[in-house]
Task: structure prediction
Amino acid sequence: MSIFTDLDVKRIVKDSFEEAVKIKDYNEKFKNSNTYRSAKFVSALGERLKDFYVKNDLYYHLNVQKVDDESGRKTSGEWLLDVSLTKQKCIEDPAKKQSKAKINTEIIWAVESEYHTGLDKFAEDFGKLMCIKSQNYLYLNGVNQEEKNLQTYILRRLETVSDLLRDREDFYGKNFYYGFWVSPEIKNGKSIWDSKNIKDLIKMTRVFKYVEKDKEENTISSKIDFIEIQ
Result:
């Protein structure tokens, strides 16, 4: 049984995005670099996922590239994915009891994020989730479309994902979330993060949940097996 709700996931995504946007106001490194901005978003999301489990008296190991708020320095920490929250087990060498190590034994959360909006980048990163065994999945899809074209893009991408997940029985019973967040990517010489106010950016951040085809829920359309978390 999950210790989180769909609304918890949506809040974690939105709060992490807000934190990443705000940091540019007091650190020049984040103001002028897309990679720092997107890395901060992913790092903040990973920390919030871990904190949620710690809050519920459970301990898991967070594997993510951490970003220092002051220096912008990135510390490698990923394992297989942009973010993975794992269970660990302590092992030792029978011949050398002092020789011990921790090993990841199960993935609780598998997360991939990409700020580029193109299909090739999506295929490269989403394919990792297709091949990973986890209890919960989250893909974070950057968007840079103007609002009048944004809904069309979202529906197209969700239709593609539905086609990929449909009939994949290994995903049955798992939580599969798909989020859209405003990419810091520079277009026409300026990032959307710098041209819109933070409330509008957060409003454009949306999270959807995959629904198995045999569940009687009101999905977006007959071609899209997702519901939006309101």
About this structure: The two ends are 22 Å apart (CA to CA).
